Amino acid sequence: MKKTTATAAVLLISATLPVLGASAAQANDRDVVRHGSCSGSTDWKIKAGPDDGRIEVESEIDSNRAGQTWAWTLRHDGKVAAQGRSKTAGRSGSFEVERTTRNTAGADTFRFRAVNRASGEVCVARVSL
Question: What are the boundaries of the signal sequence (predicted)?
Fold first, then answer.
């Protein structure tokens, strides 16, 4: 019994380490990350961080349903920085939008809004850097 428990513990730890390493490799100490829920069952994530004197912004919508079309707008300090349509894909039923913007004086504020036209669900993500 002890050998089985010890083996199970080693397997669990071994399986967890690559996942932890991948998360740590993607993180940056200066990045600001926010998570939240949309008006329905979908979740959002937004991350902003410095990138060679500019700011990289990544927004993700995760609905767990592939094939949904979402219209989105990214605003930087209230002005439209990018907009478009994206379709959820893969097993996760998600999509990601990445943009690099200029770094303005003072705090930079980003707002990512996505609307699922079919269901009417709305996601609004905000982050400041």
Answer: 1-27
